[in-house]
Amino acid sequence: MKILIDARLYGLENAGLGRYLVNLIDELANIDKKNRYVLLLRKKYFKELSVPENWEKVLVDFRHYSFIEQIRLPRIISKHKPSITHFPHFNVPVFFKGKYIVTIHDILMHKQKGRNATTLSAPLYYLKKIGYHRVFRKAVCGSEKIIVPSNFVKKELIDYYGLEKSKITVTYEGVDTNIVSKGKKENIFKKYNISSPYFIYAGNAYPHKNLKRVVEAMVLLNEEVDKKVLFVMTSARNVFTKKLRETIKKAKADKYIKLLGFVPDHDLGVLFKHSTAFIFPSLSEGFGLPGMEAIRAGTLVLASDIPVFKEVYKDSVSYFNPFDFSSMTKAMKNTMAMSIKEREKRIAINQNYIKRYSWATMAKQTLKVYENSVSV
Known about the structure:
Helices cover 46% and strands 15% of the residues. It has 15 helices and 13 strands. The strands form two sheets. A seven-stranded parallel β-sheet has the order 3-2-1-4-5-6-7. The protein has a six-stranded parallel β-sheet with strand order 10-9-8-11-12-13, sandwiched between helices.
């Protein structure tokens, strides 16, 4: 069997999608020496990534969601004649004719209305929205199988598109072993100019991440406690972090918020471990990797009371109402008041809980999907 994977979003700079691809490819390389693989990569990782003998790298250095992708990508894939193609995101070219599976991480864009989540002009935004829905429908309806990271996303797809349950496979994601606490706390604090106590968030600053309410919660928290508490956010800098800075300024919260930009895993583990807790305020997610990574590094997690977090995290996190910043503040205060003994006990229990999530298991399940799709 010849498996082609569109890995143009490979790399941690590409957030959750990039981490998904890094771990999927690493684990498949470990467990599958029989099948042949073709990886489509952009220039950086085409040069840097080493692959086993049964893997081939192909340079495809054009971006996602582009017109050139729609035209050139089907030709490139057809040239390699794969038994099955895996698109790890919904952007399957509309005119692609081959056999494929697709990973759908969420249907967040289906729910977002209006222009708060875009930087485009109104005409371009609505044109893009139409294109998005057409491409997405092609991706899910034309696929042999669909992979999703949670039963929550599976149900959403079934409800929205009327798909058969048997077409969709849930492969829970895993926890990276790289995100551990290595390095001296003092050195990392000095490097990023932070101090305890602080709460932390890692991820992008898109509107659905609900960070505006965290800013409001931090202002209220600092009014109610007798010591300064920081909110530390690690995120690649873009137009949405710029908008968040404006929100922070309007709320007069500058002295409480630290926007660090991208932070490598070896530093992130230290920042996680020494935080009071990781804040996960999202209004919608497909799985929720960052919270898992924070638990593994050795901290507590405070999360939105939404169905997908209830499915994935169960009782290993403390929940708050994501629409009420005072509910966030209350959760933060309760965590700050926790005894050291109780905190250590909860962290240990939570770390044991997340052992059920494994990238190796995810890769084995994905390989089975490949095999079943080809045999159809």
